[in-house]
Structures are given as C-alpha cells and as structure tokens.
Amino acid sequence: MSFQDKIVWITGASSGIGEALTYELNKQGAKVIISSRRQKALQKVKTSCLQASKVHIIPLDLTKTEELPSKAEEAISHWGAVDYLFNNGGISQRSEAINTQMNVIRQVMEINFFGTVALTKAVLPSMIERKSGHIVVTSSVMGKFGTRLRSSYAASKHALHGYFDSLRQEVYDKNIDVSLVCPGFIKTNVTKNALEGDGSKHNKMGAGQEKGMAADEFAQKLIPKIKQGKEEIYIGGKEIWGVYLKRFFPRLLNKILRNAKVT
After folding, report:
1. What is the DSSP letter of 54?
2. 187 beta partners
3. Which residues are part of the catalytic machinery?
4. Which long-range contacts does 198-205 make (Cβ < 8 Å, 24+ apart)?
5. Which one, out of 60, 231, 243, 244, has a CA that is 20 to 30 A from the CA of 66?
6. DSSP string, 103-164
7. Which listed CATH number (3.40.50.2300, 3.40.800.20, 3.50.50.60, 3.40.50.720) goes with 7-258?
8. Measured at the alpha carbon of residue 157, what is the angle toward residues 130 and 140, in degrees to the nearest 5?
C-alpha cells in the first residue's frame, strides 16, 4: 500500500507529531491538508515540505465545533475527497484533580474529545459514500491508564477509545478503518503547552518528553502500521509496558505509578 497521491488531512499539524507526520507523508507522495489554529506556523510547515505544492492549509479551532462541517466541506472539495483523517490536534494538562477548575476540564474535553468527534462526523459521510477511508486518532498511553496530574487529559483520551472502538464496529462493513494511536513519551512541546489547574500554560518541558522519542522517528514508525490497518498502535519507550501491566497486573502498575516521577 502506498500513500502516493492519497489525500490526507492532519490536525495539530503546526508542530510536534502532526508536523512530523506532514513531512513524512509529503515525502511519500501524499496530498496533505494541514490544520491548526496557528496559520503562520502552518505556512512554515508547508514551506519546509519537499513537495510544497501538494500541501493545502485549512486553519481551524477544534473548540469551534460549529465551524467544522464547513472546514470539512473545504477539505473534501479541494482535492475531491479525504482518504485519511489524522485527528492529531489536542492539549494536555498538569494539575491535581482537586485544583483543576471545571472550565479547564471542559476545555480539555472540548479539544481532545468533542472537537475530534465533530470533525470525524463531518468527514465520515463522504467516506461512507465512497466506501473508503481511514480515520486515525492520536490518543496516548494515558488512554489506557491514568497517572497523577493528568486526570482530565487521561479522561479525554479514555473517552476517545470508547467512542472510536464503537465507531470502528459501525463502519467495518463500509470499508472504513479506524486506528487509535497511543504514543508514549515523544519529544514535543505537549508538556510546555499543557494547562495548569487555573488554565494557564505549564511552560515547562517534562522530563519524560525531554528524553522521549523524536517526533520524526515516531512518524516513521507509525506510517507502516497505518498502512497495515492496525486498530490500536503503541509507540514509545518503556512506558508502553504500562499498557500491559494495566491489563494483567493492575495493582502492580498502581504501586509503580504512585512512586513514579510523572512531570
């Protein structure tokens, strides 16, 4: 399977994993639509691509769900379809549950869950009509277990698994694939951009992210698994073992995490 001339839409494409996926898929010949709130950053990403003429920018804000159907219409009309939707846009959180304001919890859920669902619902009818498509959702190992200081973030990622596991069963007979991607520590600015309990930016690089896998390496590891149609994908370091400990030895994982450094 080749990405040559496949039409790929990537949210959260202005930095981190989304930016790395843009470069890798563009290099493999895909026609890439890139989105985020930051239009200038998207323009810089496009300019940095090997085949910039095969990159189209659609700025969007995942919290403005009422605007997403028109954004989907624009994406579909530009090259006639969307073969792959990479739901990669999101935000993290670093605060104890007791100190996290409700508006911050809602903001995390609005971006990570409701925005992702709304954009998927806007694109899905065209995929069903064509009987072809692949929806890729960037979750996290936090979608499989939780740690301190990430209650709202983990909740939003757990919600993605429930929704898209269900959706996968509903669109199976329509030749549409759904992949949930669970990165471990990837060296991006996700921790710096994370929200504190009062909604301010964390503005600190997490130790795990600092030592994590490079985003371009992550993209190179992910794409072959997407080509294979994998339903759930884990990529990272030793933190990936937490997924299996949660499944088979949950009490042991809880004991480990209680004493683990999570910032």
Report:
1. G
2. 214
3. 153
4. 198/101, 198/104, 199/101, 199/103, 199/104, 199/107, 202/94, 204/263
5. 231
6. HHHHHHHIIIIIIHHHHHHHHHHHHHHHT-EEEEEE--GGGT---TT-HHHHHHHHHHHHHH
7. 3.40.50.720
8. 90
Q: Which amino acid is at 36?
A: S
Q: Residue 61 pLDDT > 90, yes or no?
A: yes
Structure tokens at 136: 């890729």
**Is pLDDT above 80 for 77?**
yes
Model confidence pLDDT, tens digit, residues 108-158? 999 999 999 999 999 999 999 999 999 999 999 999 999 999 999 999 999
CA distances from residue 26 to 53, 161, 183, 188 in whole angstroms, order as listed: 10, 28, 21, 20
Report the candidate in 213, 173, 169 with the shortest Cα–Cα distance to residue 190: 213
| Domains of the chain, residue spans | 7-258
* 79 touches 31 (CB < 8 A): yes
- Tokens, residue 257: 């995490």
pLDDT at 138: 98
